[in-house]
């Protein structure tokens, strides 16, 4: 009897527990629905459910304000934040997607085509024209083409540029070219090291840029002779043609200004990338360009500034690499007797007369005058 | 050749100086926005 009563009591407790649990669940559910401002068992707005079927979204039940809000967010409308990072007020920056598409699509693609085209043109030029020889042969006498400071500035600029170009090209193309060859870990280490090297060597490049500008700018102002030189194609295409030139011919002057202006521009955009969100160089530049009738945006956000800086830095870098590849070709393989100008600083007299006749005449006269003065004063040359 | 060697020395020296100097300034957005003084709870 006692045992039967015990079992009945257990059953009652079990039933009471289930009932209490269900009641509590209903009460909580009802409270939650009430707390949301709606009656119990209200479905989420705009969503209907069919028993046994998927939820069906009914757009007409969305409030117009929701659509408007998300449309504005997608268009890049800024809200307000109280944290120091004001960029957080922008939930969706569509320009970021455009930048990323450009960075991973047209930029490396057209950059590779451009660099490939430069190499193909140079190879074709070499096949057609061959190495440009000293037509009068080696004279056996040399004159000083570049002094110590000039060569130091050149090599400072050139060597730092090569380091920057290689590390920069790795940032753009490394994942396609190096990663499959050396593997993820080696590529990650290499790229991280290259990134820091890129940052630090950039300052040596800027010093070289300033130094070469100071020592060479006076020789690089355009003159009437440059037009003649350009009209004759610099004598590069026809054997025996040597248009007159001073210390730098028109081609070298163009190279000088491209390197100076390109170097300045890439340095500024590099600094902008190195110290993110601190500069607004593109908005200011666009404002200046708009004076000439353009309609470029001048109200750029810090993020847009960074995106422009990144793209511009890569574009100018690729252009400079193409130009310098051509410069290295003509200074080494492409022209006999040219490299020694930057190697030892001395060039063969016949080379100087053929490629820089006005400058060579002037230098030879100076040398003769110095020799005459030394002879008349009883001085004996060292050799 | 001497000018080239000297330029390599100069690049190394300038790079080391730059690396040391850049340690003293914030160079990324995470540096800028994670300084203790900028954090408000």
Task: Determine the fraction of residues in helical runs of chain B and give it as a percent range.
Answer: 55-70%
Straight-line distance between termini of chain B: 60 Å
Give the percentage of residues in beta strands of chain B.
under 5%
Gross geometry of chain A: elongated
Give the biggest sheet of chain B.
none
Question: Which quaternary structure do these chains form?
Answer: heterodimer
Instruction: Give the SSE string of chain B.
Output: HH
DSSP strand count of chain A = 4
- Give the averaged pLDDT of chain B, no decimals: 78
Please give the radius of gyration of chain A in angstroms.
Answer: 36 Å
For the largest sheet of chain A, list the strands in their spatial order: 1-2
Mean pLDDT of chain A: 84
- What fraction of the residues of chain A are assigned to beta strands by DSSP? under 5%
The structural class of chain A is mainly alpha
Number of helices of chain B: 2
List low-pLDDT spans of chain B. Answer: none
CATH architecture of the domain at 99-146 and 220-370 in chain A: Up-down Bundle
Instruction: State the secondary-structure class of chain B.
Output: mainly alpha
Q: What's this, in brief?
A:
With 383 residues, chain A is mainly α. Chain A is 66% helix and 3% strand.
Features:
heterodimer; A: 383 residues; mainly alpha; Fumarate Reductase Cytochrome B subunit; two-stranded antiparallel sheet; 14 helices; 4 strands; disordered N terminus; B: 41 residues; 2 helices
Structural account:
The complex is a heterodimer of chains A (383) and B (41). Chain A has a domain of 199 residues: Fumarate Reductase Cytochrome B subunit (Up-down Bundle), CATH 1.20.950. The N terminus of chain A is likely disordered. With 383 residues, chain A is mainly alpha-helical. Chain A is elongated. In chain A, the strands form 2 sheets. A two-stranded antiparallel sheet of chain A has the order 1-2. A two-stranded antiparallel ribbon of chain A has the order 3-4. Helix content of chain A is 66%, strand content 3%. Chain A has 14 helices and 4 strands. In chain A, helix 3 packs parallel to helix 11 and helix 4 packs parallel to helix 11. Chain B is mainly alpha-helical and 41 residues long. Chain B is built from 2 helices and no strands. The termini of chain B are far apart. At the A-B interface, helix 5 and helix 7 of A face helix 1 and helix 2 of B.
